[in-house]
Design brief:
By secondary structure, the chain is mainly α. It is about 85% helix and about 0% strand. The model has no long low-confidence stretch (mean pLDDT about 90).
């Protein structure tokens, strides 16, 4: 990728992270913020939005680090296994392992007495479903070999990037970090070819 296109790609992903975090942040805590809109406290709204946007930029940087790390890991994986099918099989195993961990180990560590395992299962299903949707569009826009790597990135790498919020395990922070990272990851995965193919003006 040409340096100019890389800068555009970087800045575009930053905007995706900042804007999505701003929207998700207000949506998650609407009960706390709706009074600001009712009173039209413009300065306070801008202050909160600025803070959320800044947090979103951090999420975006984490997402971009994970994306370029995965591109490197993907090349190593192809080199080690010397077969796309074997590397895809390894990725499928890792996807299953990470989803299992999201349910079982989080439940073991964080579940309170008599708490149901269903919420832990639902978040894993949600991550898988989002991954499948993004992987489908990636396959449609490129080729069928892109499906498993895209799914791996959207499930495994997203979970790794999400780890700081997983450690805290506060519901608002879990969703506030997860959803923008998913937006950033999906954007990078689907838009990278357009930036790499863009001609230098």
């Amino acid at each position: 990728m040409k340096s100019r296109n890389w800068v555009r790609f970087f800045l575009s992903t930053l905007l995706v992270g900042g804007i999505s975090t701003g929207i998700i942040g207000f949506a998650l805590r609407w009960s706390d913020y709706q009074e600001l809109f009712i009173k039209f406290d413009f300065l306070e709204i801008i202050s909160v939005l600025f803070w959320l946007f800044g947090v979103g930029l951090i999420f975006s940087v984490i997402s971009q680090m994970g994306f370029f790390a995965y591109l490197t890991v993907h090349r190593f994986g192809l080199g080690i296994f010397r077969s796309i099918s074997m590397w895809n099989l390894a990725q499928i195993v890792l996807i299953a392992f990470v989803l299992f961990d999201l349910v079982y180990f989080r439940f073991q560590v964080f579940a309170k007495d008599d708490e149901s395992i269903i919420p832990y299962v639902l978040i894993a299903i949600y991550i898988l479903v989002v991954g499948l949707i993004v992987a489908y569009f990636k396959r449609t826009s490129t080729n069928k070999e892109a499906f498993i790597p895209a799914l791996f990135f959207m499930v495994v790498v997203t979970t790794i990037e999400w780890f700081p919020a997983l450690r805290v395990n506060e519901e608002d922070w879990l969703l506030l970090m997860l959803i923008p990272i998913q937006f950033c990851n999906a954007f990078q995965l689907l838009m990278l070819p357009k930036f790499t193919q863009a001609k230098k003006s």
